[in-house]
Structure formats: C-alpha cells, structure tokens
Write a structure and sequence with these properties.
By secondary structure, the protein is of the alpha/beta class. It has one domain (15-38, 48-220): Rossmann fold (3-Layer(aba) Sandwich), CATH 3.40.50. It has 7 helices and 9 strands; from the N terminus they run H-E-H-H-E-H-E-E-H-E-E-H-E-H-E-E. It has helices spanning 2-5, 26-35, 56-68, 85-98, 144-147, 165-178, 193-197; strands at 17-19, 78-82, 104-108, 123-126, 150-153, 156-159, 183-188, 203-209, 212-220. The strands form 2 sheets. The protein has a 7-stranded mixed sheet. Strands 5-6 form a two-stranded antiparallel sheet. Strand 5 (150-153) and strand 6 form a beta hairpin. The longest helix is centred in the middle third of the chain and has 14 residues, at 85-98. The chain is elongated, with a radius of gyration of 20 Å.
C-alpha cells in the first residue's frame, strides 16, 4: 500500500508520513523500515535454513551486507495516532519488536481533531475500519470481527461498508481546513467514498486487502470552504 502511494523518504523532496488511524501500527512501522532501509524479515528465521544444501556462511554474509545498509534514523518524521489509547500502546510495543520504536512518533487522538503533526506538508495514509458505521466519537473498543463483517456475495468475499457519511464528511472538512498542501490516501472497499467526502480523487488504485477488493484513493488537499450537505428537504 505504501509503495502504491509513491512515498519515497530517500527522494529529492522527502515528505513526512502520518497515519491518523494507525491501529496496531502496521503502516507506520512498515514506513519506518522503508525509511531506515531495514530489509523485510531481517529478524526472521526461515525454513530453508534447515535444508541440507543451506550454507550458513553465505547467508550470514548476505545478512551482514543487508544490515550494513540500515540507517540509524529516518530521513523524514513518521507519525501515527489512534483514538483508542490501548491501540497506541499496542502499536508502540509492535514498533519496539520491529526495532523502530525511536523512529515512529505515536500519540492518542481523534482523527477528526488531530492537527498536523509537523509544519511541512506530507502524506496522510490511512486504512480505516470496514463494515461499521463510524461515528465522530471514534471506533475504539470494537473487535476485528465487529469492524469487518465479511459476506459471500456473487461467489466472492466482499466487505460490507455502512454509510459513514457524517464521519467522512467531517474528516474531509477537517483536512481541508488544517491540512492544505498534504496528499491524503485512503484504502477502502467503498467505491462511493469520494462522494461521501465530497472530494475529487486524483487517483484510484485497485488493491486487494486479503479477500476484500478495495480502492486506494488519493486526494490532493487544498484550502477552501467545505460546503455543508443539504438535507433531504432541500432549501
């Protein structure tokens, strides 16, 4: 998902990355590993190491070469927040296990209220919970099963997405008011998300989140008034 955004912490104009619904920290931890050039699975043991042809000295040399490329710190800041403080604690422990605890800056906070974590515009990247109505109060305390109700439809598993209009409308309003200059990316199975946010996407990338067909939408945020939605009776 990160690769699909084109985020490059080692490019000519590196940008900070912020996940305002970080959950267990998957996105920000992976971003930190990319930024520090930590190879995926560097701490793992692999089954092939038990095979007879395995040459430990060759593998150790490859590991040493890979570890020599690891940076002590990220060239750009990486931030994460979540409305559930227990999830922030969980993300912090996961970051410690991944060896990037000092690279990722984690805080508690509602996505509808959190201000930009830094002055430099960057990349907003989030994968919000699926399959539930998201209220302004947040989604803390729900199990993964409750957050993603998967049903069999037309021979294929598809995530159920409820309305969520109020949440996404408020989120878009908050972003337009406070995150001008940022690019926002959101992974969702809801193809009507841009309409709910009343934002025009500049890119949509098809992705699969396990068995769930999704779209990764990009929104380029500019300052401007966020017009209120007219009620059903009209004016």
């Amino acid at each position: 998902m990160i690769a699909a955004t084109g985020w490059n912490p080692h490019g000519d104009t590196p940008q900070p990355l912020y996940d305002p619904c970080c959950g267990s920290g998957t996105v920000v931890i992976e971003a930190a590993q990319i930024a520090r050039r930590i190879p995926a699975g560097i701490l793992r043991r692999f089954a092939f190491e038990k095979l007879l042809p395995f040459q430990k000295h060759v593998w150790d040399a490859m590991l040493d070469e890979a570890e020599a490329q690891i940076l002590d710190d990220s060239p750009v800041p990486i931030y994460g927040s979540d409305i559930a403080h227990r999830m922030v604690d969980f993300a912090q422990r996961n970051a410690e296990r991944a060896g990037v605890a000092e690279t990722v800056q984690l805080r508690g906070g509602d996505a509808l209220q959190r201000m930009p974590p830094c002055a430099q515009p960057g990349v907003l990247l989030m994968n919000p919970p699926y399959g539930e109505r998201i209220a302004a109060a947040g989604v803390a305390g729900r199990s993964a099963h409750e957050r993603m109700d998967v049903v069999e439809r037309a021979g294929r598993e598809t995530a159920q997405t409820e309305d969520g209009v109020e949440f996404f409308s408020q989120l878009a309003s908050h972003w337009k008011k406070h995150y001008s200059g940022w690019s926002a990316w959101m992974l969702t199975p809801d193809l009507k998300l841009p309409g709910k946010m009343r934002l025009k996407e500049t890119r949509r990338t098809p992705l699969w989140n396990g068995p769930i067909e999704c779209r990764l939408f990009r929104f380029d945020l500019v300052a401007g008034a966020h017009k209120p939605r007219k009620d059903a009776q009209g004016a």
